[in-house]
Design goal:
By secondary structure, the protein is an alpha/beta fold. The protein has 10 helices and 27 strands. The protein is elongated, with a radius of gyration of 45 Å.
Amino acid sequence: MKKRKNKIISLLLALLIFSGAFSAFAGSSNAVSETEPSDITNSTESVPEETKVKLKKSSITLYVNQTAKINAQITNPVGETSYLNSHREVAEVDSSGKITALKKGSTEITVLNDKSKALFKVNVKEPKLNKTSISLEKGRSFKISVIGKAGTPIYKSSNKKIAEVSASGKVKAKKTGKAYISVRTNGTNLKLNVKVINKILLIGHRGYSGEYPESTLEAFEGAFEKGFNGIECDVWETNSGDILVHHDPTTTRLTGKKQYIWRLSKKTRYKYPIKKGKNIKKYKSKKLIIPTLEEVAKLVSDYKGYINVHIKFDDKYHMSEKGVKKILKILHKYNLEKKALIFGVMNYVKPFINKGFKTGIYASPKTKSRLQSMAKWCSENGAGTIVFADMKRIKLYKSAKSLNNYCKKLKLKYGLYSTNSKKEYEFLCENGAQFAMSDNYLRY
């Protein structure tokens, strides 16, 4: 009986311990359930932002030995940015993105950070000179320009007696002959070939008519401002006794209104303003007027330049003796005795011969014999210059040397009426011509 009682007591104690442990477990379980929702709600896991590589520009052109920096904007970078180069022999790139051009070619540089990348293209060129060969008249200068230079170029002349060069690259022609200028730049050598030729007069044909409306004061002044030595103008005597400067016998081509030039006067010319010509749109707000010879002569005198006066003719027109005297008077007034050449066809230039000015004939012969006949006429009548219409007439002689010798024999000088070719201009400089007329500036 006593043993049974002890077993019941032990069982009750066990139940009591078990219920206490269960209560503690339940309490603990309730505490967890009460706090877990709050913890889940307040501890949201953060997602890292994506890395992005963006370039300010995607390509560049460099010359050998030049450097440049890749401007890369990295959003949310991860570690170091790397630069992968497809052609290391063309250009190299360091860890900071600095590029150094090595040789002609192209390469692609990949800018990489994490898994984001961008492509940068590099085109490498070799440096070059603005000219590789030039012909310079004796006494004239030319400035060498290095395209794509890195650092300061070093210049050296092969013959300083023919052409010298300054530390800044200014070449000056000293005497006729050939030389070259070596240019050390960007780790390489470049060369400018220089041919020094004789100096002749460059005359603006109807003024600087390649850039201005022809035969206007603007064209004549523009010629002197550009560097021409002088200008050529065509003259007509009007019925009123004025001497006007205009190429055509009528005003139609340049003014749009038809009238014979000799029927105009110093006063009525304002009714026929110039409305056509090179860059005419620049003069919308300005009235361009047919000038008088006196206006042109004064301009030439102010610039201390030369003037070639072309005596014009037409089937319906003939210059009077008064007209001849007036032209001579105007040229004398502005002291142009040593600066003027009066030329035209034989019969029209004859009244001006031996009147204190140089004279010449306009020559467009078709044969060598006709050219010789015209040259003899000049020599016999006192006209000292042959003005060839074009290069075809000059080349009637087999060589320029033989033509030059023939002219010297007759004590004649020669020049070209019109050329727009630098090659022809240089030919004239090398072969004894006195002048070349041109619409364009043919010097460097």
